[in-house]
Amino acid sequence: MAVQAEVVRIYRTMFRDSDALVVKRAFGWALLCFSGKYHGYQAVDAGYHDLEHTLQGTLCLARLLEGRDQSGVLPRIKANVFELSLLAILFHDTGYLKEVGDDEGTGAKYTMIHVDRSVGFAGEFLREQGLAAGDITSIQQMIRCTGVNVDLKAIPFQDDLIRLAGFALGTADLVGQMAAADYPEKLPILYEEFAESAAFNGGWSANFGPFDSALHLMSQTNDFFRYYVRPKLEDDLDRLHLFLATPYPDGENAYLDAIQRNLARITEIVAAGSVGEQ
Length: 278
Description:
With about 280 residues, this protein is an all-alpha fold. It has 11 helices and 2 strands. The chain has helices at about 1-15, 20-35, 50-70, 80-90, 115-130, 135-145, 160-180, 185-200, 215-220, 220-235, 255-270, and strands at about 245, 250-255. It has a two-stranded antiparallel sheet. α4 (about 80-90) crosses α7 (about 160-180), α5 (about 115-130) packs antiparallel against α6 and α6 packs across α7 (about 160-180). The longest helix has 21 residues, at about 50-70. It is globular.
């Protein structure tokens, strides 16, 4: 797995005296859960919030933490905090997994409550693996940073490094998916997830719609970035996205550049008036 190999490289670069086995184990656990091999749960069947989506955020998080480490900004991230943040982002969307016997629709129906479900699933799984209670709490706090319109100030982080890692995770979740090469093509799938959630819950949530069609969702994406994502990155998440720049903070930022290209492509698709025309 290319993402795992890159995260292992980053981990070994940042923490030369630590064993990268913990990184490989974390990926193994995530694959176990998303492939339906964890007892009591089915394989992920959400079309957008799948393993690929998780890996996009995971790679972005690792690169962000590496960029911060290389910048020399203090305090430095510790190995155990990196490890906890890795588990947090690998498990941050496990709330889309359905239990065995849950055969109605896909996991997308849980969109409105997927953060709470992810927190619960991560706690259940990681307790079984023998993680310390305090570490699990830290992971759960980080997962909560991915909630839409979450009050970050209300999360009782155990210390400043856990808070930093949580904000890095929230940043990577947003930036990683929007910078993905196939983001414009996957937006119709995201619309289907939102629509399934609305049907399952008896109506649209203010946080996830309403949208009349996939094209309608796409027509709102530029504003979503301008009025939600960008202010959140700048004001709420401590501008950690700047650690993705080379050099920090004003160098080329491949992730932000990719987002701008995607937004331009989405504008072209909307102007054409059809998701199938570009």
